[in-house]
Amino acid sequence: MSEPAAPGYYRHHIFFCLNEREGGQACCAQHGAQQAFEHCKARVKALGLAGPGQVRVNRAGCLDRCAGGPVAVVYPEGVWYTYVDQADIDEIVSSHLRDGVVVERLRLPPEVGR
Predict the structure, then answer these.
(1) Taking the complete model, does pTM exceed 0.85, yes or no?
(2) Neighbours of 81 (CB within 10 A)
(3) Which residue, of 50, 56, 61, 96, has the fewest CB within 10 Å?
């Protein structure tokens, strides 16, 4: 029997910026964001965390924090992450999305913007 949907429909909702800027401007797409998104989606599914009441992994356009790219944000907490590789994504999935514990070392500093 599946657990009931959370008040926000998903317990955690993670958005990956996949924006690509023209003219050589800094953007998440230059830093493997698409691959990170796909890896996160696969890990969430493999761990049985996907679906209503659990976790949703989504692509997003520009999240306007390019200077810290690549970036992802987890709601409802509003925790912003930056990441380097698949191991970082795995840690976000297992620690935050599965266990509810924020990965402090990957948090994007609040002052980092565009």
Answers:
(1) yes
(2) 23
(3) 61
